[in-house]
Specification:
alpha/beta; 3 domains; 6-stranded parallel β-sheet; Rossmann fold; globular; homodimer
Chain lengths: 515, 515
């Protein structure tokens, strides 16, 4: 078999069975090899940022890596911002990048570029395959690097001649590593800390899940500890009947206020909290001065089991989990389409086990509190702050979990970065409902503009950041890529369209024009 | 004035008067400063790849740099593939990237990334401003780096606190460097070479312009030398009444055949030609073995004046320029919509001095020969081979030359990478006609698939690279971003829509559904 087939068979043997791809000439052998390897499904995307974000979303839901297939340096470049988000999510990604054939690299051809330099900006592991004979092993080692806890982007650069030359065979099976439990001393030390007043817990990484939340909730009930969670975790278990930690607020002032009473902090798969941006005369570091930080579990450790061990150690295993079991407000049947109305409609209508891809940006603050009363669901925030991940991550999540409804909650400005995602959703008939929060503004920038002291925006300034001139018509954009769409102008329309869309299978888009 | 205003005033003082921007929080002071500096026009783009390509197109037409304004590492990442094209075009670009405030950089905030590492992949010059007091000088030195011949991407990384702190004043005026003429010995040596049979000229860089082509044409007439031009030059002067060098073919086989008779090659702002990709059993280096290469002008030198000096030296100044003065074929009034029909309609209808942004990919081979008979125009190919530059480069060119008609000739697959360009065209009412060559295929990949030996594509393989399922509806996509659009299904419709669109001012799109 040639190198391309060896690569593909190594992926298949190791359970990497989806490849989000935007191939070019140097990747043609890989595409041709798909003919002979049924266990890997190639999903074509019309922009590489879609491939990268889809691989991230796939990993966040399935817990295992997808592959990407990107074309040379510029193809990789187009994927980098969503690979940045994947890096911050610690998502395992097998990032495959074609390169010119080895002999061709000495020439300054138009597409020549320093691919490893592009790759290193977002990858924990970068490997260039030197010859076809090492293709199988290189592929296996790249998979191993991707899944090494806590997970990372591992980039495999494959020259065209490595793909077309005889490779011998496919690579070995990779052992799936377990995340280690922290040492028992760490559990004991954390239990001691929880005896002191003002000790709080901060959950991050993979620990905002059902099991970890139940343990943290029991610890809170038993010890009185406050429980916080990072905003930018890859996946947050939320909804009715679950314990809800307090998400660290976005702006530094409310975050400082929220954390002001903390005398000592136990962090689980996380670090001491810092603000998203730095501002003049405001600290970036959010803990009170001198507050000690104790790491219960590193990001590569099993924070969930550590929380359960801590729960046992504190005698909290039989405590009742403090949950808010209240039913959602009824979905609105009239009135203007406000964020609150959308939150209420979503909470009342979402099916059980939905997956939310959250790129609401400025709308999130008003909507997320309503979701606490929705049916249990998983929400995937933007981990690395780079907008343009919401639609691709939804696409990847839907590929990983075909029997769960995926809902992408998208600000209109953010959705524009990777709107090509809609086409792949249509092509693969993925069960994704996209809700566009059409405020027709970069509202977060207007807020930030006020924070820099510009209270009243002049017409010239407002125009600089006004995405409403011309208006984006999301019905046309969506239908232009094959996804049926409707537009809602008031709360009753939104509720009706939402409930209708949730009853159907397959991609749909609702443009919610905010009042 | 604060650092942001010092930066903006330094740009304005040095004639950098357009900024293609997609700002975020860390760039808000720069946006706020636009209020006070009327000489810089901020143009909002909804994706950073649009900003980067627009700056490239602006430079190719105006000969001077535009600025970009990008948001942190991921914002820069989204611009990298078109900055790669700008790098290969040697376009001067003042690439401004916001960074976290200096104190904030020690924390691993979500948007933290190694911005210089992203920047170095495409930039000849990278500078991080350490404090506000050096802002003016840093901006001036970045402009100087950008315009140093032959031109390059110069990246200026500006931490948020540098923008908000007192900067003193704006930076100095930058001298505009002249490209030096090659030494007279080089001219004499080239003249000697032209006395030998089989000596050919290869034009690249900035030398495929009117003056250089006239000189090269006279040299060809006087000495019998063959004249070639690089495919991937930033700007090619073409059309009726001009001398047409032979463009080096794309695939290595015809390129090798075209260059087979060359005994010695004089290169002007270029290098020995190589194929676009490497293939098995086919050389990448396209000159006959042992063929000597003489560099008449380096890329940083004035190749046009060198060609004129060579023309004088060879006594060719009075030779007639060999031009094809034939009129274009009439625009077709019936029949199927073939590439040939589109070429004929374009050639017959294009106004004088049009600017073509050429991202036709597989369609180019059939269309470009027709354009030789069109009114004189400039054509801008994809310099770095990274598709997704056509629409942004057209946008930038239209900003630089508001009185010239810009026509973007776009393959449907390529247009999808940066379709957000349409929105800025609508917002700025730019005089751009976009023609989508809708073959609903990645045809170039089908050709490459045949080249790797897969002659008959199975249904599975064809599906892997089939962008026609679902069909992209360019009318909806275009109108969704505010650009009026029509669809042509036969030659008569295309001709009528083309001629109507060329009579109007402002952005238009024609989806040409190929037969």
């Amino acid at each position: 078999m040639n190198g391309a087939e060896a690569l593909l068979r190594t992926l298949a043997a190791n359970g990497v069975d989806v490849c989000f791809m935007n191939p070019g000439t140097s990747e043609m052998r890989f595409v041709a090899a798909l003919e002979h390897v049924d266990d890997v499904r190639g999903m074509l995307c019309l922009f590489e940022g879609v491939c990268a974000g889809a691989a991230d979303g796939y990993a966040r839901i399935s817990g295992k890596p997808a592959a990407t297939l990107l074309h040379l340096g510029p193809g990789l470049a187009n994927g980098l911002s969503n690979l940045h988000n994947a890096r911050k999510a610690r998502s395992p990604v097998v990032n495959i990048v074609g390169e010119h054939s080895t002999r061709h690299q000495q020439y300054d051809a138009p597409l020549s570029a320093d691919i490893p330099a592009f790759a290193r900006t977002v990858s924990g592991y970068v490997r260039v395959v030197a010859q076809a004979a090492e293709m199988g092993r290189a592929a296996a080692e790249t998979i191993a690097a991707a899944i090494a806890p806590p997970g990372q982007v591992a980039t495999l650069i494959v020259p065209a001649d490595v793909s077309w030359s005889e490779a011998g065979g496919c690579g070995p099976l990779v052992e799936r590593p377990q995340r280690p439990l922290p040492a028992s001393q760490a559990i004991a030390r954390a239990a001691d800390l929880l005896k002191q007043e003002g000790t709080a817990l901060l959950l991050g990484g993979t620990t905002v899940n059902d099991r970890a939340l139940a343990a943290a909730g029991r610890l809170a009930a038993r010890t009185g500890a406050a429980v916080f969670a990072d905003r930018n975790t890859p996946r947050i278990a939320w909804g009715r009947g679950r314990f809800h930690p307090r998400i660290v607020p976005y702006f530094p002032e409310p975050a400082l206020a929220a954390l002001a009473g903390v005398r000592s902090l136990i962090v689980v798969e996380s670090q001491a909290p810092v603000s998203f941006f730095g501002y003049p005369n405001t600290p970036s570091y959010l803990l009170p001065e001198g507050c000690p930080v104790f790491v219960l579990a590193q990001r590569s450790e099993d924070g969930t089991s550590a929380l359960e061990a801590l729960m046992e150690e504190c005698g909290a295993a039989r405590a009742a989990v403090p949950v808010d079991a209240s039913e959602p407000l009824p979905a609105p049947t009239d009135g203007p389409l406000t964020l609150e109305a959308m939150g209420a409609a979503l909470a009342a209508s979402m099916p059980d086990s939905a997956i939310l891809s959250d790129e609401m940006v400025s709308a999130g603050g008003a909507v997320i509190p309503y979701l606490a009363h929705a049916a249990p669901h998983d929400r995937m925030p933007v981990t690395g702050g780079s907008i343009g991940q919401g639609l691709p991550v939804a696409l990847g999540a839907a590929s990983a979990a075909p029997h769960r409804k995926v809902i992408a909650l998208e600000a209109d400005g953010s959705a524009m970065y990777t709107l090509q995602s809609l086409w792949t959703m249509a092509r693969e008939n993925l069960d994704v409902l996209v809700v566009i929060f059409a405020n027709r503004r970069y509202e977060i920038l207007e807020i930030e503009m006020r924070r820099v002291g510009v209270d009243i925006l002049s017409e010239k300034l407002r125009d600089c950041i006004d995405i409403g001139r011309p208006c984006l018509d999301w019905l046309r954009l969506s239908e232009g890529m094959g996804v049926p769409a409707t537009r809602a102008g008031d709360a009753a329309e939104f509720t009706a369209q939402l409930q209708a869309a949730l009853r159907m299978h397959g991609p749909r888009l609702i443009e919610a024009v905010l009042s």
